[in-house]
């Protein structure tokens, strides 16, 4: 039988079940923590860090991802503060370098946190892809097919989502992942711009 954990979120006490995350516990209080790479039921990833919150335990504070961090007895959590708002603002501005300035949920969050989505454009020259590498489509693909028709390839600024050529038929007929895409790159009619084939990326054609 799982234990009941008592913690404090934004100065409100909440009782959560052992194994729950801070994000899930916050929902019990009706506290909304923004996310870009989280979707209920999919494997936790913690890539975007937009859900960053400040925790205090043992007299020390840390910044953690609420979607992955498990609840702990006596934990104190702050979900909004000037410090947290600044972190989220900067993360949104960095995400826009690769994604672009006007992409779905990113744009809405930028308005909320007063983020300048063009801030780093002059420092990093990249062609916008409408992708923030949240991994939602990749994880959803595994759920839909018990296999992967798409996956990540590359590192750093070259990292992207690509299609396995031998599974392109599965991908074109599935359309299961578009509902989880936070940027709007994946739509009900396909991916725009399309995902490259992994072979093309490896050969330098993409």
Describe this structure in words.
The protein is 28% helix and 19% strand. With 206 residues, the protein is an alpha+beta fold.
* Gross morphology: globular
Q: What class would the helix/strand composition place it in?
A: alpha+beta
Radius of gyration, in angstroms, nearest whole number: 19 Å
Span between N and C termini? 52 Å
Beta-strand level of the residues, as a percent range?
A: 15-25%
* Main sheet: strand order: 2-1-5-3-4
Major β-sheet profile = 5 strands, mixed
**Low-confidence parts, pLDDT < 50 over ≥5 residues?**
none
Q: What's the total count of β strands?
A: 9
Instruction: Count helical runs.
Output: 6
The average pLDDT score comes to 92
Proportion of residues in helical segments: 25-40%
Following the backbone from N to C, one meets helices and strands in this order, namely: EEHEEEHHHEEHEEH
What's the short version?
The chain has 206 residues and is α+β, with helices and mostly antiparallel strands.
What's the arrangement of secondary structure elements?
Layout: E1 4-9, E2 12-17, H1 22-28, E3 52-57, E4 60-65, E5 76-78, H2 82-99, H3 104-113, H4 136-145, E6 150-153, E7 160-163, H5 168-174, E8 186-187, E9 190-191, H6 198-202
Parallel strand pairs: 1-5
Antiparallel strand pairs: 1-2, 3-4, 3-5, 6-7, 8-9
Helix pairs in contact: 2-3
What are its keywords?
206 residues, 6 helices, 28% helix, single chain, two-stranded antiparallel ribbon, 5-stranded mixed sheet, 19% strand, alpha+beta
